[in-house]
Each structure stands twice: as structure tokens, then as C-alpha cells.
Amino acid sequence: MATYKIPEMESEEFALWQTLLEKRTGLWLPESRKVFLIAALSRHLKEKGLSNYSELYSKLDAGAISVLDWATLVDSLTVHETCYYRDIPSLKVVSSYCRNKALNGFQNEPNKPQHIQVWSVGCSTGEEAYTLAIELDKVNMGLKESCDREIYYGVTAVDISYPSLAVAREGIYAARQLDFVPQSTKNFYFNRLQDEYYQIKQQVRQRTCFIQSNVLELGKKNTQKFDVIYCQNVLIYFRQERKRQVIDQLTKRLKPGGLLVLGHGEITHVESEELTRVDNKHCLAFLKKDDVN
Ligand SMILES: C[S@@+](CC[C@H](N)C(=O)[O-])C[C@H]1O[C@@H](n2cnc3c(N)ncnc32)[C@H](O)[C@@H]1O
Fold first, then answer.
1. Which of 2, 82, 196, 229 could lock 124 by a disulfide, CB 3.0 to 4.6 Å apart?
2. Domain boundary among 24, 53, 77
């Protein structure tokens, strides 16, 4: 059987691919990840019977490659690493924000039900979104116990990757993904399956929905607004100007007074008249001003 020889890629060609990927996904592929690009592209060349990268590039640029093929390519170039309870200081900020928001609501509008909508942006295989739903459930149980009132809450989670979202919807995880989950939380919110696998319980799944979406297109889609937007370890792969554009779009989708949580060190400086940094050195969170829509 003839062996397939992976074609070389010149610097100018690599630069073209870098630009195409950034334009469509925001992802800026550094030179150090060129080998991943070559590996992913050469698989496609082989599958499609094409002989060089420029042929594939022209097809992609002209939209002559199926959405599915493009999605597979993007998927193989993006980092999907995640786990439950990945960033505990940020989660504490979210819980305390939601509890205070509900208590203020109960006080100011005693007859009105209190709703909290959370958005997990770049949710990968779902661990972050389910962690947020678990934390909201705990806030809700605490409110029931302390003041006999409940909140209505939901987590909407988006990602560009179809395969990651399929895993998220199934909600089954290897034990190592749950390494940081407190034992009592594990017992309460997960069903233990065979072979060291766990499934998140229905009570959490029914509060969570997963949707395919590209953060570069947030401005084009519906304009639902959220109380909390949680976007961690996504912008880290974007260049500075892109990060700013996405943060502006996320800010637009926050309700007045809403909370935006980014990953620690994800961006060095956020310049926005509408946001005030939360005074907590262990996380990167911002509050949207109350009087901005
Ligand atoms: C490293 S994971 C982060 C997962 C989770 N937020 C966390 O912190 O554990 C990054 C995720 O961002 C997604 N992503 C990258 N570019 C995206 C884009 N343009 N739109 C939506 N999601 C994107 C990737 O598919 C990947 O699942």
C-alpha cells in the first residue's frame, strides 16, 4: 500500500490559514501550533483526495466545503480542556451575586418571582455549565431554607464545537473530570455509572440547555440578556483586539447590574465605561452599571 506523504507548508501559506481561522472563529494559531494545523489539514486532504493545502484553502474560502467539514476542522484545532469546579473563586463570586440579587428582589418586589439567567460562553463539553447550574441550585435551596422563597433559574451554554456539545447534552463524564467536585456534591448531583463514569442528574440537566454558536457572531443572533455571563479560557486564544470586540458584545448582552466573569489573566486591561471591576484579586469579574441598558 502506498504511504501518504504529508505536504510541507510554507510560511506564507501558514499565514493565510492563520488569517482565515481568525476571521471565522477568533482563534489565533501561533507558530508553535503549526504542526496541529498540518496534521488536521492533511487528514482533510487525504479524505477529500486533494493534493495540496492551497486547493483546500480555495475551496474553504469560496464556501465550497460543507459546514460539517469546516466544523470538524475547527474542532480539531481548538482546545476543549475543561473540568467541573475549575475556578472556585469565580464560582463563589457568582453564587454570592445570585443570592444577593434574589434577596434584593424579594425585598423590593415581594410579589414578583425572581429569575436568574446565566450564560456559559465557550462551554466545551458542559462541565462549566453544569457546575453553574449546581451552584444555582444550592443558592436556591439556601433561600428556601432561610426565607422560604425560591428563584427561577436557567443556564444557557454555547460553543462553536458540535462534538463537544453532543458530549455536554449526554452529561456523562469520566471520574477525573469530577476531581474538584466536593464529595457531598458528587453524591447529591451525580449518578454513578459503571467503569468510573458519572452522569449529571436530571434535576440539573433540565435547568441547562446547549446551543451551537460562534462568539464572533453574538451581535447577529437573538438579543436575550443575562444576569451572569461566564466566559473563561476562550478569549485566551484570541488576539487583543478580538478579545475587546467579544467583551463589548458580551457586555451588550448583560442586563443592567449584571455580572461578567472572565478567566483569570485572560485579558490584561478591560476598557469599558459600562463595567466596574469586582474587588476580588482571585478572579476577573465585572459588574455592569445599573443605569446602562
Ligand atoms: C478551553 S475550552 C474552555 C471550556 C470552559 N469554558 C472552561 O473554562 O473550562 C475553550 C472552548 O471555547 C470554544 N470556542 C473557541 N472558539 C470559539 C468561538 N469562536 N465561538 C464559540 N466557542 C468557541 C472551543 O470550542 C472550546 O470548547
1. 82
2. 77
